Amino acid sequence: MIASVMLTDPTHAINQAFDYLVPMELESIMQPGLRVLVPFGVHNSSAEALVIDCKETSEFSRLKSVIRPLDDMPICSQELLDLCFWMERRYFCSFQQAYQRIKPPRMSTKIRKWLILKQESITQKLTPTQTLVLNKLKELDGIAELEELETELNRKGLIRTAVILQDMGILSIQEKLDDTISFTYVRKAQLTVDTEEGYALSDLLRSKRAPVQADMVLALCDNGDMLTSDLVALTEGSYSSLNGLRDKGIVNIYREQAERTVYQKDAYQPSVAYTPTEEQKPIIEHLNRLITHNLHEKIILRGVTGSGKTEVFLQAIATCIAQGKQAIMLVPEISLTPQMVERFVSRFGDSVAVMHSGLSQGERFDQWHKIKNGDVNVVVGARSAVFAPFDNLGILILDEEHESSYKSEISPRYHAREIAMYRAQKQGAPVLLASATPSVSSYHHAKEGRYRLFEMHKRYNDNTLPVARICDMRSELLDYHNTSPISLRLQDELRRNLEKGEKSILFLNRRGYNTFVSCRECGHVLECKQCSIALTYHKKTEKLVCHYCGDTHENVSICPECGSKYIKFFGTGTQKIEDELHTLFPDARILRMDFDTTSRKGGHEMILNRFQKGEADILLGTQMVTKGLDFPDVTLVGVLAADASLNVDDFRA
After folding, report:
1. Rounded Cα–Cα distance for residues 412 and 155 (Å)
2. From CA 552, how far away is CA 463, in angstroms rounded?
3. Which of 180, 368, 378, 513 is deepest in the core (most CB within 10 A)?
4. How far is residue 517's CA from residue 505's CA, in Å, rounded to a whole number?
5. pLDDT score for 545
6. Element counts in the chain: helices (H) and strands (E)
């Protein structure tokens, strides 16, 4: 058997397949999607590769053999392999770049090369580099990792020298494989006897003046198997006491795989399906028919805010689960994920997995394996969740489908909408694109008949839509001398809301304190040297930050161009608005939600939970606060500098 493989290690930037012989003992498990270790290059260094095809013949006569498989089962299906090749053609990327999107998070094998000295006295004539390597190896007690040696000597590419020295019999090269991430395990204790005998043993231990061990046995009798850490804490004992019980044969200690949880199911109240409205009913019935008959169709659902689009999603997904199929639910921002997870877990329990960049690598790894093993039927997440390893998809849903965050800005520069449509077509499933304001291109396709269009014009329970008012800030400046970025009308409405104890949300699409720093004398604007983008002033750190590459600079008081002292800050960011709000409403409780306040793990969820629990009166933020959040007690929304977003050089603006 011949295995055709693609190298997946980023260090091998080679975008072509290689053929390898499959040893007889490996033929039974060799199949596309399996990770394998292969010898590659002149020095036959071990490299990680992915099997893309198994065949009987090859056009090449002299083939190397596969060393061994890295997993027991394939990590990706044929459909996901085909998706990689499609992305390679569609987005002009390499197979390896596409593979990075579908593989388990951070799952790769690090191959470490160790050099071990075999001869202390050397008679052969050596080159200066070989002598340098051997002398350093002797200093390191005759054993060193190649990477460490290259760092110590400040030289790269010493593998060639090491191979020559190995051929001369002076040293040997050994490889050690390390997984970059793996499952986490916990230690648990269990009784080796039945409960009745356990109670008797507990009394016996207490009579022999071993009260801690007696309490441990009693706790295991009452609770069954327990984590060793919990058992020690509960009994105020020690691990030596627990080990003593193990040595006596009373307790067995074993390892168990533990899942890194990303939500607490018990924290959510179970919910039931609502009776569909007259507008929802035909949409749900149409989706159910497509799901039942494995029919692919592209559907646009245009529904006003509060019309019940989420209930349509939930009822369609319930049909998927009832038929043993799977569903992917995409949201544009991870700030939306906590609320969407709450709704889905309340309806479907622990058959929901979550995938987004806000999770730790270990959490994402565990969630991926739950999906791959078929432990869940639904995935909720941001754009990367579109690659979830489901092989029986019933529906793919993109909420707020017009959002630009569905487009990746790093290679491969894929759009989640296109990936969803490719996968849905391959598996015979509908794609539902939902938004109150569909994108120009999607709505055009619907009007042209390429997508099916459904519209919902009424809010659930016939609630009225809010009234939108536009305030002209130029007239406020001229007529009322209002220099604040918050209009007088909005100030009055905020004051009224605070008096009534109701909540408000303010949106400004610009973080930081001021948008740029300029010299009033020569007009010079301070820019990032790498990006030529105006630097933004951040008051909290007294730094100038490039919002494009993240480069940070010290604040300036003198113009670097002309030496003038007339440096002035222009524009308005969320930090400046926060200060303005504190000045206008000293007693108001304000939460700011932007990249700076949510950069820590769980930052989005913490801020939204505080706002939901009534710990703040005003939520101020960037785009994160505009993505379909649902707070019943929010009665006022203010959009600051509303025209700024209209002047972007993009027809979608």
Report:
1. 33
2. 48
3. 378
4. 28
5. 84
6. 19, 27
Q: DSSP string covering 443-467, please?
A: HHHHHTTSSEEEEE-S-GGGPPPPP
Q: Which residues neighbour 445 within 8 Å (Cβ) at sequence distance 6 or greater?
A: 298, 300, 451
| pLDDT at site 515 | 58
Class level of CATH domain 110-179: mainly alpha
By the 10 Å C-beta count (0-12 exposed, 13-18 middle, 19+ buried), 632 is classed as exposed
SS3 440: helix
Q: What is the pLDDT of residue 322?
A: 94
- pTM of this prediction? 0.73
Q: Which of 504, 402, 388, 416 is nearest to 444 (CA)?
A: 402
The C-alpha atoms of residue 528 and residue 5 are separated, in whole angstroms, by: 43
Angle made by CA atoms 602, 607, 610, in degrees to the nearest 5? 120
Q: What CATH homologous superfamily does 466-512+573-653 map to?
A: P-loop containing nucleotide triphosphate hydrolases (3.40.50.300)
Class of 2-104 in CATH: alpha beta
- pLDDT confidence of residue 388: 93
- What DSSP string describes 549-564? T--EEE--SS-TTT--
Residue 644 CB burial class (10 angstroms; 0-12, 13-18, ≥19) = middle
Q: What is the pLDDT of residue 651?
A: 63
Locate the domains of the chain by residue range.
Answer: 2-104, 110-179, 184-258, 265-462, 466-512+573-653, 516-570
Residues of the chain short of pLDDT 50, as ranges, are none
